[in-house]
Amino acid sequence: MFEFNREQTVTLHLTWFAFFLTFVAWFNMAPFNTTLIRVAGLSAEQVNILMICNVALTIPARIFIGTLVDVYGPRLVFTALLVFSGVVCFQFALAQTFGEILLSRLLMGIAGAGFVVGIKMIAEWFPPGKMGTAQGIYAGWGNFGAAAAAFSLPPIAGLFSPEIGWRMATGFSGLCCLAWAFIYFKNAVDHPERADRFIVGLEHTIDVTHRRDLVLQICLLIPVYAALGAFIWKLSGHPLFLLTPFMTWVVAGCIVLIYLWNVLQCLRFNLPRLAGPIPPEQQYEFRQIVVLSLVYALTFGSELAVVSMFPGFLENTFGLSVTVAGVLGSSFAFMNLVTRPSGGWLSDLIGRRRTLYILVLGAMVCYWIMSKIDAAWPLEWAVAVAILCSVFLQAGNGACFACVPLIRRDLTGKLAGMAGAYGNVGAVYFLTLLSFVGPQAFFKTISIYAVAVLASLLFLRSFKNLHVSYH
Fold it and tell me: In terms of pTM, does the model score above 0.70?
């Protein structure tokens, strides 16, 4: 397949399916948003909070797990994450109160960090010339888990009464995660030269090679912690009073302290290194990951937000049933099977920056058109525009992560963790926006953000001077 050798092919298939199952688990609530309102007694505001909960902890999880995977290797970390995802699926399926459901969705956000683990595994096994295609296949087929959850779980739930159907379906997704954890641990192999070539520590910071890059890294962390602050604000009476004013200040203070500690770590780790000469093979421009993080906040962050709300949007706008809305709603993630690999392939073929320009521009136009969708539209037109928009976004995801592993190979886990976290930062902000405005304004605002991302691509440098890999 694509001139991959046997070891590369086996690794790719084992890893994309592990990612696929973590996404099925992560999105196993989306098809049942309206079901939870009807049979579990939740309000629309509570479901909105749960959607934000579902992505909140993915932000720090992707950064932290990006560090872990650089140290312990993707095989062990992915196995542990699959086991964790399976257990949380069972916790969600058995939840009886809103508090229990909220806790399970918070924890389930950690499953979304599985993406970073596979990025590292693929980066170790594939050379730069095949990197875009391999990363695109891994991420595209894995991301299809979101669509699979939308169209496969409602029919499973339909075999039972509405009160227990959603529980059986989400519990089944957990069983699949546990089974694949065993298979992955037994069959996946870390690259044999990883430990010798990539010696890193557990510092929660990224190596930089210029003082200006140190400032950029500190600034890049601000939206990450601000997104967590926005989530806390939502729980403090906007719209739900789940935290008292005192607890709100305590948690917000903890977030500020963690950010300051992170800044201190950046300074303590990098300043001594910057005092001396940096070897040429280690030098890179941190602004590369800054721009790619902004890109991923658009391409994946908005996709994540739309996947979470699109089935409900179709159900409410066009009066569809839960099952039909779930199947049609999955159209926004369905094309991942081919579009994300295509984005990586295009990057290898016509250049990484050129591909990103085309795809971001296409997403900008499509979101503007989606902002015009209402009940007067023919349903097939609305779905067609959504599919076209998803093509640009998902191909943009593939193009983005065709670039990340080429910035500095020994830092792939940490850099992928940062860019991946920004995908969820975007999702938190977009879902928070959705709680204040209607779907039309929601789509229009994302289109405006795409204009800013398009401008940021002017600062993206060429990826022609690649660091030497061991392939």
Answer: yes
